[in-house]
Amino acid sequence: KFLGPNFTESYCWPPVARGCDVVAISYQGNDPFLYIPPVLTFLQSGSCYKALPNRNGPLALILCPGWKKAQLVFELLKTYKRCSRQLHPMLIILGQNKEEARSVKIQGCEVIVTTPYSLLRLLEHHSLLFCRLCHLVLDEIEVLFSDATEQVFTVLDYYKKAIITEEREYIPHQIIAVGTRWNKHIALLIKEFMNDPYIVITAMEEASIYGNVQQVVQPCTNHERTAVLLKILDFTHNNLQKVLVFTNSVNEAEMVHEALKNNSIFSLKIHKESEFNFKYILEEWTKKYSSGSHVVLVLTDDCMQSLGITDATCVIHFSFPSPRIFGQRLYSMSDNFHNVIKDSSVDQEYTQARSVILLTENSTCHALGILRYLQHAEAEIPPQLHDITAKTLEAEEDKKFSRPLCAYLKTLGICKTRTVCPDRHQINLQIDVPQNIPDKITLMPGCVTILPLHIVSATNYFGRIVDKQKDQYTILAEEINEYFKKPSNKVSVKNVEKLAFYGLCEKTLFHRVQVVEISPREEENLFFNVKIKYIDEGRTSRVQSYQLLHLPARFQCLPPQAVEFVVCRVKPIDNEMEWNPKVTHYIHHKIKGKLHEAKIVHTLGNTAWVDPMVRVTRLSDLKMSVNEYNVRSEILSTGLGTDNPEHITQLQKL
């Protein structure tokens, strides 16, 4: 079902399939399809590898930024191995338990998919892992370099030492690095570890960072823009200066052109309504000018593509750009981008391309995107831009005020993707007042008995707080099940309403459920799909409307019992944000449906943070209790969790 390579793939696949070193930066740079087909193609030619030592070890190693991406790449390899010779790919994700790394067997495996941390743990016990390695793929290179810089360079050093031996001289050796953003460490990767690489950059704003474009932000008021522009155009350079002044409307272009003319600055202008055609403007722009000359062209964004200018030395953003338009404007200077490869041996003199942004009080719309770009480019940022974006960020957070509190904030104490995360990162007193948690517990947090029933992740569960003396829900559940035993009481609901409470039979038990979503009803169908929430367990499900039963009012009096529990002070290893399914699976089987003793240390809304959470076994014969296990300790014992001392402190800061 594959239609053919996209724009970036068309540039990447040929050099990768020829065994060349490749760096690819693209908006689709996190798609493994940039490298999987051509790497698999190269691996078909078994004759290339005949001179390699006859040992166990992979020919290709794919390094991913986390277990989730590694899992995706591995699944793709399994899908496409049907089209190639048997490569026996392996997914290797290792925790901190040394025995696990020691027991890994790599017999017959030719492609390994892993993470930097897992690979280094593996190398401690498999020192000859690189003896046959020819292809090293760095997936999402900017994430690898930001989250595991030291580990990635350690892997690169191992690889470099493995391939510089004399017997490996005529054997393929290739490094492929793909990502969505340029990173300063990529320049070092190219200079120290690659051999004449192909560099493919289809994200223009990233190309300008690669090309070392100087970014200047000039704060001014909207009324001062013309005066500031004239000051910028007061040239003192001896070199030829070719300047583009970008405006966002015909009127603005006319106004700027007139101002330049009145100040004796010769300039060209082009917009969709101007009398000069593109051919004339291009003839003027491409004329042979003497050194020290200055050519200025005032234009609107919609003329960029038709002109196709790439040799400007300076771009002035008279109108504030959106991030995507910004990249297109910068492309107009691409001939003057600094070339990392050509200029790696000798720091040759080159004309540094320059981008000047006029920042005014009207620049709020796209200021945040431009700020992030400038931070990424490590440009000097004036305080005015920080002030504008602080207000924008505040407004963005205010829009999320009715959203649920961010799950990462709850389970880890931090959210790495705060600016793009759709959920709330501040306290909303209306939403965050305690719900479903007995008053006596919120007033005086202490030890409670909890029953986890729905396991979301290794540290996040839904369940009930059980009253040891007289548990109201246990009494209610018995009454509900007794009531529905009579066939005459099982009355299906005709008109299903959103947020209403109903009964639902699951195997032999009856539950209280709430309708949270009703699917659009198809005309010919009498029944339809509804999303429900088990209000005493916390899980959700989809059922047919006819399965919902009328629930008498007396069974609706007891408030929903489901409470969210979060185990404190533990997080995934290796800077991961999500728990490895191995840990979640292990904890799921360990704790689900079993009573635990827990100390509530914090409550917000329907969430209770517990530390510790312990399974207590009562020995009735000896009239004593024994702590069977501590959930946090069990997570740490898997080797896939580590200490998170700042967890509760971060929440209390909120």
Automatic annotation (TrEMBL):
<dbReference type="GO" id="GO:0031047">
    <property type="term" value="P:regulatory ncRNA-mediated gene silencing"/>
</dbReference>
<keyword id="KW-0744">Spermatogenesis</keyword>
<keyword id="KW-0469">Meiosis</keyword>
<keyword id="KW-0217">Developmental protein</keyword>
<keyword id="KW-0378">Hydrolase</keyword>
<dbReference type="InterPro" id="IPR027417">
    <property type="entry name" value="P-loop_NTPase"/>
</dbReference>
<dbReference type="GO" id="GO:0003724">
    <property type="term" value="F:RNA helicase activity"/>
</dbReference>
<dbReference type="InterPro" id="IPR001650">
    <property type="entry name" value="Helicase_C-like"/>
</dbReference>
<dbReference type="InterPro" id="IPR011545">
    <property type="entry name" value="DEAD/DEAH_box_helicase_dom"/>
</dbReference>
<dbReference type="GO" id="GO:0042078">
    <property type="term" value="P:germ-line stem cell division"/>
</dbReference>
<dbReference type="InterPro" id="IPR035437">
    <property type="entry name" value="SNase_OB-fold_sf"/>
</dbReference>
<protein>
    <recommendedName>
        <fullName>RNA helicase</fullName>
        <ecNumber>3.6.4.13</ecNumber>
    </recommendedName>
</protein>
<dbReference type="InterPro" id="IPR002999">
    <property type="entry name" value="Tudor"/>
</dbReference>
<dbReference type="Pfam" id="PF00270">
    <property type="entry name" value="DEAD"/>
</dbReference>
<feature type="domain" description="Helicase C-terminal">
    <location>
        <begin position="228"/>
        <end position="389"/>
    </location>
</feature>
<dbReference type="GO" id="GO:0016787">
    <property type="term" value="F:hydrolase activity"/>
</dbReference>
<dbReference type="GO" id="GO:0005524">
    <property type="term" value="F:ATP binding"/>
</dbReference>
<dbReference type="GO" id="GO:0007283">
    <property type="term" value="P:spermatogenesis"/>
</dbReference>
<keyword id="KW-0067">ATP-binding</keyword>
<keyword id="KW-0677">Repeat</keyword>
<dbReference type="Pfam" id="PF00567">
    <property type="entry name" value="TUDOR"/>
</dbReference>
<dbReference type="GO" id="GO:0003676">
    <property type="term" value="F:nucleic acid binding"/>
</dbReference>
<keyword id="KW-0943">RNA-mediated gene silencing</keyword>
<dbReference type="Pfam" id="PF00271">
    <property type="entry name" value="Helicase_C"/>
</dbReference>
<keyword id="KW-0221">Differentiation</keyword>
<keyword id="KW-0547">Nucleotide-binding</keyword>
<keyword id="KW-0347">Helicase</keyword>
<dbReference type="GO" id="GO:0051321">
    <property type="term" value="P:meiotic cell cycle"/>
</dbReference>
